[in-house]
Amino acid sequence: MDNRRGYLDLLEEILSNIPSTAQSIANSFVAEHRRLESCPIVTIASYDEAALIRSQAKPQMDSRSIKEVLEQANGIFSNRIFNNHPRFFGFIPSPTHPLTLLGDLLLASKNPHAGSWFQSSGPSAIETGLIRWLAELAGLPADTAGGLFVSGGSMANLVGLQTARDQMLGEEWEQRARGTIYVSQQTHSSISKGLRILGFSNKQVRKIKCDENFQMDCSDLERTIEQDKEAGLMPFLIVASCGTTNTSSIDPISNIHTIAKAQVPPLWVHVDGAFGASVLLSKSHAHLLKDLKHADSMSWDAHKWLFQTYGCGMALLRDRRHLLQSFATGAEYTRDAVDSGDFESPNFWNFGPELTRPARGMRLWFSLQVLGLDAVGEMIDHGFLLAETVEGELRKLDGWKIVSNAKMGIVCFRYEGTGKSVEEWDELNAKVSGICIRENKSAALTTKLDGRTVIRICAIHPEMSVEGMKEVVRSLDEVARELAAI
Amino acid sequence: MDNRRGYLDLLEEILSNIPSTAQSIANSFVAEHRRLESCPIVTIASYDEAALIRSQAKPQMDSRSIKEVLEQANGIFSNRIFNNHPRFFGFIPSPTHPLTLLGDLLLASKNPHAGSWFQSSGPSAIETGLIRWLAELAGLPADTAGGLFVSGGSMANLVGLQTARDQMLGEEWEQRARGTIYVSQQTHSSISKGLRILGFSNKQVRKIKCDENFQMDCSDLERTIEQDKEAGLMPFLIVASCGTTNTSSIDPISNIHTIAKAQVPPLWVHVDGAFGASVLLSKSHAHLLKDLKHADSMSWDAHKWLFQTYGCGMALLRDRRHLLQSFATGAEYTRDAVDSGDFESPNFWNFGPELTRPARGMRLWFSLQVLGLDAVGEMIDHGFLLAETVEGELRKLDGWKIVSNAKMGIVCFRYEGTGKSVEEWDELNAKVSGICIRENKSAALTTKLDGRTVIRICAIHPEMSVEGMKEVVRSLDEVARELAAI
């Protein structure tokens, strides 16, 4: 009984500290956000620091004060990339809107089990409505489309790829062994990972060539499908990208769709829109995505260009019944039981890989409701402007080559003068990136395009100014010229 | 430029509101927690209410005040089961410790990309240390064990099952088509879902009989493996449960391990410890889990009996290299590159299905640090006491049959008198559960055991009192007697 008393005392102490601590965390967060420009962009723990942090992982027997643990946590978290820094341009940055702090807190405070309608009817109704609206934006048929919120693009792609496998190849290994899948040289690695999870080997995946705009080459696609059919294989799935990670290129989805549906039987078209699909909400550029309507399935991340914290993506299906056919389990739940009622009051555990799942969609809902579509649209359009600013500024300068034009927030370029080998210029560009990171001027990482090292900027931060982008270009140019002169 | 000004004004207004709103959400949360006993346990939106909520999913063009959206959100969230209600006993309840509100808020405020070391070295060092400590608790070999935090048991099981597939059957469809998997009649549905994702058909899964204690029958297991081998199939994986959802039974893992490893080649043993593995942290019952040390892979949920909010589970592997062999992608990352250094500074995107992932482990770390192991151990032990209290009270009463003894927080029972058919008693027990839910006395759902409807109580709430549990039993008994008398 003493122990019980002790536990309840501890609980009471914690409860009484929660509101002020929440405010204090929020205060620090807002203060940090206001001085984000001067924060370090990239901090990596040294070997020794990492060893020290690892040693702090194990809990002690006794309780500790919240304040003390918070301070320790702040030290640990400082060893990270500030993904929401206006001058972080690597991978796909995560310029979360500060508002997400409240949406996340709200969800944590309610913590519904959003796997079943019984447990989470309110949040599930919002998620249902939100998914339908997003599917409608993409141009998918309102009467059949559906989907669910998942932890991100990898899971959303997995859901799409699995429904494709199950609808097109059935359950037999013999069929599946003959299936072939068409991706491009620029397709995201989560697709090959997803296919591997689903049982496909690399030998079944065809990497279709890209043209000079890093878009899938449809002639190569058609030719390769034809060859595979002649070899007795079963082409069943084309994965198109809407916003590749390297260059933000959009594959020719309409042509791909035509090719896919001209086959007998028609091929499935999955669109990886993890990054690009958010442009559907832009005010000036949504037309770029008019061909998304051809997707049989698609992925879309809210934790990229919809400004959410990590762990929020969407899988959308042209025909929501396919989700049930791939993911519904339980003896009491048979395929025959699928009727329209299930989609009005869905058990999301029958729609995807997870049984227990947080109501991730409520976080996106909260942000969209407060910000409104006008603001969100402008925030997205601003990314176009930032990348175009980089391209425009670079074109005014000698020595810079635009390797991939500004497209949907991403631009790739390379400094290349005379008197050095291409390999030496590769090295120089990598050094330019590294020096600017070390000096905290910007974190524009490098990637490889057509075998050459290029500097890549993904600039989608709504708070980054055009003047700030010009300054970033100036500093890259300065460093490049200094190095080139050596 | 006007629009830009408008956006920045909106941002400023939101920023200035964040700390007070965070405090206000936390205040409501604490107030609700203090009166949790009197809150409705189960609230389900009616058809009309759900339609209304769905219609509120779509955002408007204009921004709205945070306060207004919060109020609307509270209304929506009220349509849920309070999984953290002390008298919610269905599924596995989620008696989150209130402290998790702060851990979740903290993580949201930092939002590291915990897929790679480069982006998240501090949090990744903690996750690495925490995973190792948890694996050590389970008895897995410290020099080889590893794992990662995932969104929950379904994903953790998927990770374990995939490593089993890849290690035991290789990449060829012919081999995989011959693979057979052994689960029990009480195995959780996430296992069959996971196997389906991985490409296995139901025909490859053997449901081994359970004995009267709902544990896998090892004679049936051995016999079935033998039959499959004689039929030219390739038994490769046994899934044992540590805490089945229905009865919290633990399969005879040691015997299963002996059988598995006596085969040529030896079979893989995956343990589903999503619910039960947390007992490793109990002060008085950890010995029940001494056989976890035999697992080749295991799942473990922190959002069940470690009191975290949803979206936090662990996949643990006896040999962490197997994770890389199943999940590492990228041309630059080959299998040959696997050396010990990678495990000191891991890229978790090479350990599991997700590329982008939140640093889920930091939430568990925060709770464990503040509470300390003494408190957590007592919180877990308390669940044993609560279920035992139910069993003890029921045994004093006429008409109640204990169908499954109190085991690790779960007890199943049934009211059955004379003068009715078993089917009628089935119906009566379901009604007892339903009436107690409607009257907000308790939410003890029903399940099927040996074909009969039983009432099931999973009682793991650290704040539920023994006296409260006795009252729950009294009210169930009262309702049952009234119905039986009709």
Structure in a nutshell:
With 486 residues, chain A is of the alpha/beta class. Chain A has three domains: 2-85; 112-357, Aspartate Aminotransferase, domain 2 (3-Layer(aba) Sandwich), CATH 3.40.640.10; 378-485, Alpha-Beta Complex (Aspartate Aminotransferase, domain 1). Chain A has helices spanning 2-34, 47-55, 66-77, 100-110, 117-138, 153-169, 173-178, 189-197, 218-230, 253-262, 302-305, 321-327, 341-344, 361-395, 422-438, 466-485, and strands spanning 146-150, 179-184, 205-208, 234-241, 268-272, 297-301, 313-317, 400-407, 410-415, 446-449, 452-458.
Note down, in words, how this protein is organized.
Chains A, B: The modification N6-(pyridoxal phosphate)lysine is found at residue 304. Chains A, B: Keywords: Decarboxylase, Lyase, Pyridoxal phosphate, Transferase. Chains A, B: GO terms for molecular function: carboxy-lyase activity; pyridoxal phosphate binding; transferase activity. Chains A, B: This is PLP-dependent transferase. Two copies of one chain form a homodimer. Chain A has 486 residues and is an alpha/beta fold. Chain A has three domains: 2-85; 112-357, Aspartate Aminotransferase, domain 2; 378-485, Aspartate Aminotransferase, domain 1, CATH 3.90.1150. In chain A, 47% of the residues lie in helices and 13% in strands. In chain A, strand 10 (446-449) and strand 11 (452-458) form a beta hairpin. Chains A and B meet through helix 1, helix 2, helix 3, helix 4 and helix 5 of A and helix 1, helix 2, helix 3, helix 4 and helix 5 of B.
